[in-house]
Specification:
By secondary structure, the protein is of the alpha/beta class. It is built from 25 helices and 27 strands. The chain is globular and about 75 Å long. The structure holds ligand MGD (2 copies) and molybdenum atom (MO).
Length: about 675
């Protein structure tokens, strides 16, 4: 019998959980992949999607060789070429672009296909190469920058409580988050709290898998959560349940914030949010009497015009009740701000020849069509699928179709984006390369050891850029650092929570928890704000043009009355249970299980349009349209249309939800407004 090898790795996908996994290798082949039961947070369970990882790796459609375009841009016709030909052509074209337009005419557009520090996150694999060329910087603001920016105003960091400590909460608010779909391991800790008597409330315009499991579900209109938060606090303060001692010692701006709270009595909050007044009063009373209360608020509720303000105001709730100082109290959004790796050593932005401009990931269409001085002449798409995932799909397509644009896409699959490439380069998958990970929903670092050799001529992104640097004759020595060396540089941090975490140790143990104190109460004594206090009033916010005192900003498209009349429904396109963004969108079985693109409407909204379940409908506004099958259900509140992200346009009639999403920024952080989109739905 052939010897079997067990290799420890980590799921690379953009999900808070960063699962630890074990690959079984026999005769150099990966024959099994399962969750690692020893990992304290993910405990051996993967998900519907990643259970099909090896199937994806071996898929007949996988890109295994470099390709050159033979058809028109967007058509997706290619011929196989050698790596030598591909590197020569890219080197020549880049040289030409740099001479003619300067380095900033190059846009390294990297996405979230892998969150590894070596191969992907923040574009590390190619970052030094692009820095040496003086390429434009890429602001990866597509996911969580609005919420992070808002939280920084209030608590000085985007990172809050350890999600594991939800187990110690007595009231859990799952606010604009659908963990049973988008990162299910946190659920164990919610259930642990429940066994001790905790009450769980889901706050979501849609009765999601998660909301259906909660003790109570409130369904606000999208984008109105900060008004709900202020209404709840109005009840808390009305009962005199604020923690005056905590407020006095640990907060800034209470008198003004208290006035703001007075502006939102429950009946006003009810009018804005569409949540019944008595439900607001009841939950406000529950918050007033339940210590500790924990809020799990993730990315869903900050994909709105006022998304930063929403998180900013939500983080004030535990400031009023004093729960930031209690184990099991506070708010958790992302934990990545707690992981202080040595990013400067990894990124080497000091290699840039001078200051460079920054281009916004969420505004790719604008970047390709409107940015001048210099225009973008060379685009590298790395671990991203912007035709499927970025706002204003039709504009993105127009930009990518530009004949004078040279586009290189590093990919594993022939996506809607590779269809526009001049050159496609074949990328390895996680069990074929090395990487270092953290989770944005827990406090562990994980090492991913390569388990097998890649198929065909696939290369790790790091190796692709080492070869390209050599081809271009670049002499900067750090461009040639090995993957292990890159990981060591990232780990070379002085931060106390990384003490003793070396590559050797990670390799041996697979994963290591940050050396952070337990119990984990990072803000019990001090917040990392300018004042050292929780800031109800924030100079940082004021400097960015927000109201100095935390409050409520209405969702963008509702403020335009004429548009609101033409496009009366608020479209939410949240995480699909079966895809991870657009990853797995190619998998036939997962597509079948997803039921294809659907849109859900409340029975009243369907009746008003004479529509019935099962009918093909068109979801449209002035920017574009996509088609879906209608489901009429009271799981969606009136005024809302619910669909999901991740469907491949070319497998869904040519468009997905991003055809109707605007290329507009959130109030802070330059984030996208995916769930702040007005549409009309009609029969096809
Ligand atoms: N299966 C699966 N898992 C995923 C992903 C995936 O595509 N598929 N994506 C991953 C990524 S990249 C991310 S960033 C995370 C995102 O995961 P989540 O933070 O859960 O984000 P969403 O799925 O966008 O939205 C979550 C919920 O917020 C609700 N929502 C939308 N707008 C509002 C609002 O204004 N107020 C309130 N209260 N609720 C609102 C939606 O109806 C949805 O049920 O998940 C990750 N995990
Ligand atoms: N309508 C709507 N759109 C959304 C969202 C939403 O809620 N609604 N959510 C947004 C969010 S939260 C995010 S994070 C973005 C994500 O948007 P993107 O960053 O564009 O992520 P994906 O769409 O998953 O595309 C990732 C691609 O990377 C490839 N890939 C995976 N691993 C590797 C690798 O190791 N190397 C290389 N070269 N390629 C790799 C995959 O095959 C896949 O095609 O989508 C956003 N889009
Ligand atoms: Mo994301």
């Amino acid at each position: 019998m052939a010897a079997e090898l067990k290799v420890l790795g980590a799921c690379p996908l953009d999900c808070p959980d960063d699962c630890s996994w074990v690959v079984t290798v026999r005769d150099g082949e990966a024959v099994g992949l399962r969750g690692n039961p020893d990992h304290p947070y993910t405990r051996g369970a993967l998900c519907t999607k990643v259970n099909r990882w090896l199937e994806r790796a071996g898929d007949a459609d996988r890109i295994r060789y470099p390709l050159r375009r033979t058809g028109r841009k967007g058509e997706g016709r290619f011929e196989r070429i050698s790596w030598d030909e591909a590197l020569d052509e890219i080197a020549t074209r880049l040289d030409h672009v740099v001479r003619g337009h300067g380095g900033e005419a190059i846009w390294p557009y990297w996405g979230t296909g892998t969150l590894g520090y070596v191969q992907g996150l923040e574009g590390t694999a190619g970052r030094r190469f692009f820095n040496v060329l003086g390429a434009s910087a890429h602001d990866a603001n597509i996911c969580s920058s609005a919420g992070s920016s808002g939280l920084k105003c209030t608590i000085g960091s985007s990172a809050g409580m350890d999600p594991e400590d939800l187990a110690h909460a007595r009231l859990v608010l799952l606010w604009g988050t659908n963990p049973l779909t988008s990162g299910h391991h946190v659920w164990k800790f919610v259930q642990a709290a429940r066994r001790e008597g905790a009450y769980v409330v889901a706050i979501d315009p849609v009765a999601t898998r998660t909301a259906r499991q909660a003790d109570e579900h409130l369904a606000p209109l999208p984008g109105t959560d900060a008004a709900l938060a202020l209404g709840l606090l109005n009840v808390v303060v009305g009962l005199g349940a604020q923690d005056e001692d905590y407020i006095e010692r640990h907060t800034l701006g209470w008198a003004e914030f208290r006035e703001r709270i007075q502006e939102f009595p429950p009946e006003r909050a009810a009018r804005i949010t569409g949540v019944p007044e008595d439900a607001i009063v009841a939950l406000g009373e529950r918050i007033a009497r339940t210590r500790p209360t924990a809020i799990r608020a993730t990315q869903g509720l900050q994909r709105h015009g006022g998304g930063a303000e929403t998180l900013r105001t939500l983080a004030c709730i535990p400031g009023v009740t004093g729960d930031w100082a209690r184990l099991g109290g506070g708010l958790t959004f992302s934990t990545s701000g707690h992981v202080k790796l040595n990013r400067a050593a990894l990124f080497r932005d000091d290699l840039r020849p001078g200051p460079v401009r920054t281009l916004s990931m969420s505004r790719l269409g604008e970047g390709l069509l409107e940015v001048d001085d210099p225009p973008v002449m060379a685009l590298f798409v790395i671990a991203a699928n912007p035709v499927g995932s970025t706002p204003h799909q039709n504009k993105v397509r127009r930009g990518l179709a530009r004949e004078d644009l040279f586009t290189v896409v590093l990919e594993q699959f022939p996506t809607d984006t590779t269809d526009y490439a001049d050159i496609v380069l074949p990328a390895t998958m996680q069990h074929e390369h090395a990487d270092l990970h953290d989770g944005y929903g827990h406090l562990y670092l994980t090492w991913n050891e390569p388990a097998v050799a890649p198929p065909g001529e696939c290369l790790p992104t790091t190796e692709t850029f080492r070869r390209l640097a050599r081809r271009m004759g670049l002499t900067e020595p750090s461009l040639y650092d090995s993957d292990e060396r890159l990981a060591e540089q990232a780990l070379s941090s002085e931060h106390p929570w990384l003490t003793g975490i070396t590559l050797d140790r990670l390799r041996k143990e697979g994963f290591v928890r940050l050396a952070a104190p337990k119990p984990f109460l990072p803000y019990a004594e001090r917040f990392p704000t300018p004042s050292g206090r929780l800031e109800f009033r924030s100079q940082r916010a004021e400097a960015f043009g927000l109201d100095p005192v935390a409050g409520y900003t209405p969702p963008g498209e509702v403020t335009d009355a004429e548009r609101a009349r033409r496009f009366p429904l608020a479209l939410v396109s949240a995480a699909s249970h079966h895809f991870l963004n657009t990853v797995f969108g190619e998998n036939a079985e997962l597509r079948r299980r997803s039921g294809g693109p659907t849109v859900r409407l409340h029975p009243d909204d369907a009746a008003a349009r004479g529509l019935a379940s099962g009918q093909r409908v068109r979801v449209a506004n002035e920017r574009g349209a996509f088609e879906a099958v209608l489901q009429v259900t009271d799981e969606v509140r009136p005024g809302v249309a619910a669909t999901s992200k991740g469907h491949w346009p070319k497998l869904s009639g040519g468009a997905n939800a991003n055809a109707v999403v605007d290329e507009r920024d959130t109030d802070l952080g330059g984030g996208p407004v995916f769930h702040d989109t007005r549409v009309e739905v009609s029969a096809v």
